[in-house]
Amino acid sequence: MTTTAPSPTSSGAGRTGLFSFPNPVNDVAARTVATGVVVMALAVAVLGWGWVLVPLTYGFVARVLTGPTLSPLGTFATRVVASRLPQHAKYVPGPPKRFAQAIGVVFSVTSSVLWLAGATGASRIVVALLAGAAFLEAAFGFCLGCRIFAVLMRAGVIPESVCEECNDLSLRIPGLAAGSSER
């Protein structure tokens, strides 16, 4: 028998208000958002469309502050794409994903400031790095920001209480805790 966690978008699990972030996060939605980020970041880095930095930066800020609620891309990913692919749902801890979105804020804001300051070449390099990290998430499910989060947790910079399920798989997989007590 397979047990799945409740969908944060359908049940509101892990959400306490507008300024909250889902926990757990549906990985299908996260990878869909990453795909949108790749497209927007490449539009800036390759085509030089600086105006795309506005929705790109807004999206990261909105997702850090409210999860998918105020992010058009996040809403599309959770309500349209992920809801149509429930058989592929894989739930992962929310705090590392929020941390990764915060790194996206830093890169997109930096790129925007550089663009506005006339340093378009530097801006394009910064946003290309962002595109590379987003591509890893979109194509391979490798969340670079989540890996950095894990390293910071192991180093004690981020307290373990921020993401207990990151260290205890039985909190993410309900059958795991029950199965271990039967042995």
Task: Describe the overall structure.
The longest helix is centred in the middle third of the chain and has 23 residues, at 94-116. The chain has helices spanning 8-11, 27-45, 53-66, 72-84, 94-116, 120-140, 144-154, 164-167, 169-172, 174-181; strands spanning 25-26, 91-92. It has a two-stranded antiparallel sheet with strand order 1-2. By secondary structure, it is an all-alpha fold. Helix 2 packs antiparallel against helix 6.
In short:
The chain is mostly helical. It has ten helices and two strands; from the N terminus they run αβαααβαααααα.
Separation of the first and last Cα atoms: 18 Å
Number of helical elements = 10
Counting DSSP E segments of at least 2 residues, the number of strands comes to: 2
Helical proportion? 55-70%
Give the SSE string.
HEHHHEHHHHHH
**Share in β-strands:** under 5%
Spatial strand order of the main sheet: 1-2
Radius of gyration: 17 Å
Main sheet summary: 2 strands, antiparallel
Low-pLDDT residue intervals, each spanning 5 or more residues = 1-13
Shape: globular
- What class would the helix/strand composition place it in? mainly alpha
Please state the average pLDDT score. Answer: 85
Secondary-structure blueprint:
Layout lengths: L7 H4 L13 E2 H19 L7 H14 L5 H13 L6 E2 L1 H23 L3 H21 L3 H11 L9 H4 L1 H4 L1 H8 L2
Antiparallel strand pairs: 1-2
Helix pairs in contact: 2-4, 2-6, 3-5, 5-6, 5-7
Question: What key phrases describe this protein's structure?
Answer:
183 residues; mainly alpha; two-stranded antiparallel ribbon; 10 helices; globular
